[in-house]
């Protein structure tokens, strides 16, 4: 007789429903609302990162061949910074905000109370599996919610490690991790949540939003898009290209939502730009970048095939001016620069999300604005210039989730500004206090006493009451006095 092996519990619709109910019971108990609970959980995330830095870096190496520096700095250190900021500011964030009142409600006082939304669902992405899973979790915890985290199945080592570590360090009755793929995610999406936070692509984003609409659940969608880089002449080209390279290939080999998707420049600047990119790329990654330990691999064979298809497009294959080498067995693609790619090519119809970087030529740099605005709104837009007027025009003319002048992606590290998309690049934002706000309901509270009760509010209605009520609603002292005196 065959040995009966322990079977993994199937996570289906019934299991998702039971999980949702358990979390609602925990939230209803008030456990997650206390300042002490929130603080303890945030401190535990920092401790988990410190205790298991090596394990986390190893999981990221297994999933993406991610360089240790990128793993520790861009995932763990940024995550710990989010926790540290929340620990420092949480008491202030939780305090009711005083609000002004008017003569309409006199005598009265008002405040805005930040209350947790309830039970929330976080669906994460594979490219920065720890940061993009746990950074939203920091906001949800700081706001006092109970939650479910669904890590991406495309980063299995990271997903498995989070499923193991989070119950050891966090309150397992309030913070749950569900591993799995489409069926598990679908089961979760069928439930009613008080907010869904999704990081990923627009195709799945539409599915998430459709599922949320059935329950009128609010969503944050952190998507992506074709983030442009505009390069003006008369700049320090070496510094600009080094920053572009780190923002493109130094961010998970182009597999990042804020990664530069394409460059726009003028003809007289293009040759200088390409030459500088080639030189700096060789300095950073050597003559054979496929062997570089400082470049992540492509996440899986499906994404490798997708990127290969973009490169093999007839309109694109002859435009490679640097790179293009591929190693299918090891899922590696070298940094690749393409010059003079047609705008109607396949590579411009979707977010590249990989190490390919097309460069487009315009007659004058201002023409880049129309080119960018003719497509969907990107998650980020970048400009390299010393021209003050051009900077102002770019900020005013280009609609994007965020804009950075003379660098790439650094707005991610500034917690005092929101990070999020606009239009098809996403809805809602987070980071810093914006993470707290993303999982919080701002409740309006008005306090009145039993004095100052005005008969003008009550029937029977008269013409004089109408005049007085109109004046009171305006809140204008002079208008109210004129009404009381019977003046028109």
UniProtKB/TrEMBL annotation:
The active site is at 222, 257. Keywords: NAD, Oxidoreductase. One of its GO terms (cellular component) is cytoplasm. It catalyses: an aldehyde + NAD(+) + H2O = a carboxylate + NADH + 2 H(+). InterPro entries: Ald_DH/histidinol_DH, Ald_DH_C, Ald_DH_CS_GLU, Ald_DH_N, Aldehyde_DH_dom, Aldehyde_DH_NAD(P). The keyword Oxidoreductase applies. GO terms for biological process: aldehyde metabolic process; response to abscisic acid; response to water deprivation. Residues 30-445 form the Aldehyde dehydrogenase domain. PROSITE patterns: ALDEHYDE_DEHYDR_GLU. GO terms for molecular function: aldehyde dehydrogenase (NAD+) activity. The keyword tRNA-binding does not apply. Pfam families: Aldedh. Belongs to the aldehyde dehydrogenase family. This is Aldehyde dehydrogenase.
